[in-house]
Design a protein that fits this description.
Pfam family, one: AllH
Radius of gyration: 21 Å
Strand content: 15-25%
Protein name: DUF2877 domain-containing protein
Number of strands: 10
Shape: globular
Largest sheet: 8 strands, mixed, barrel
Helix content: 25-40%
Order of helices and strands: EHEEEEEEEHHHHHHEEHH
Distance between the termini: 35 Å
Number of domains: 2
Strand order of the largest sheet: 1-5-4-3-2-6-7-8
Number of helices: 9
């Protein structure tokens, strides 16, 4: 950097700190947008999102503290830039990581409840497909590879719809008490070999979802769903039009979080929400079946019937 070049301070995700602070290396520009720059640094799924304050802060993002000037990023898809030593070197500007931020993970609900119930009124794309996929996870695994293959990379854009759906399913497996390391690992083993068949950005987001990380609006929604059954019924909000039938009511916190998620991208938010809801539907059905069995056998010792939850790590 020359003395005349501007310096933009930024906060780097702890998920990308090693990448940014490591040795200098060449990075390929994957996409440029007014609020985001996507860089492939190394392998296919190693993507560094550089985002402005108005951009969607992905779990591995380098978040710039200042808004992007009208001149833009100064690069085009296919260009090479340098990342390393705490800097991203663009033509005429250096973006420097001066602090670290900590992305949030989707929680694991501690209360036995029907987590998908608040989402039941919503008409969502891919909901049925993700429900069938989850049923395959919890039952006969033989169809799982073909079902996953039908989703990975399906659809246009930097994050194809099928990948957004899979992200939603993996996050739901972490959220729901019926989820487990076993089910999440089973799905990830089917997804991981196919990452090279989708875009680099989508492969990176799938990897983060498998580890429980998502953008803040999605995490807020899962937190709201996890706490919806315990929250006092102080009010409800309506979601109408495409998101559900007129007159549908939801807890205020859940409704606000849904709106945030649906606002993500052209269809990414709706696709991810469809994957999340369909998976919760299937896992809730297992709870419903258990409840029916217990009602039919009152002399049995009542227990949750859920697999023991352990700290999840796919590192």
């Amino acid at each position: 950097m020359t003395a005349s070049e501007p310096l933009w301070p930024a906060a780097v995700s702890e998920r990308a700190a090693t990448l940014v602070h490591g040795p200098a290396r060449s990075a390929k520009v994957l996409g440029t947008f007014p609020t985001a720059l996507y860089l492939q640094v190394g392998g296919h799924a190693r993507v560094l999102p550089v985002v402005t304050p108005d951009g969607l802060r992905l779990p591995t993002a380098l978040a710039v503290a200042t808004s992007l000037p009208r001149v833009g990023w100064g690069v085009q898809p296919g260009d090479d830039v340098v990342v390393g030593g705490g800097d991203v070197l663009l033509p005429g500007v250096t973006i420097r990581a001066v602090r670290t931020w900590h992305p949030r993970r989707v929680p694991t609900a501690s209360v036995a409840t029907f987590l998908g119930a608040p989402l039941a009124p919503l008409a969502l794309p891919w909901r049925a497909a993700s429900r069938v996929l989850t049923q395959g996870l919890t039952g006969d695994e033989r169809s799982l590879p073909s079902r996953v293959q039908e989703l990975v990379g399906r659809g246009p854009g930097l994050t194809p719809s099928g990948d957004d759906v899979l992200c939603g399913v993996m996050l739901a497996l972490r959220l729901h008490p019926r989820g487990s390391d076993v089910l999440l690992g089973r799905l990830w083993r089917a997804v991981r070999p196919l990452l090279a068949t989708t875009t680099s950005l989508s492969a990176a987001l799938l990897t983060e979802a498998a580890r429980g990380y998502a953008v803040a609006p999605v995490v807020r929604l899962t937190e709201a769903l996890a706490g919806a059954d315990r929250a006092a019924p102080t009010g409800s909000a309506r979601l109408t039009g495409e998101t559900g039938p007129a007159g549908s009511t939801l807890p205020d916190e859940v409704a606000a979080a849904i709106r945030e998620v649906l606002a993500i991208g052209h269809s990414s938010g709706a696709d991810l929400l469809g994957g999340l809801a369909g998976c919760l539907d299937a896992l809730d059905a297992l709870d419903e079946a258990d409840s029916a069995d217990l009602l039919g056998a009152p002399d049995l010792l009542v227990h949750s019937g859920r697999p023991a939850m352990t700290p999840r790590s796919l590192q």
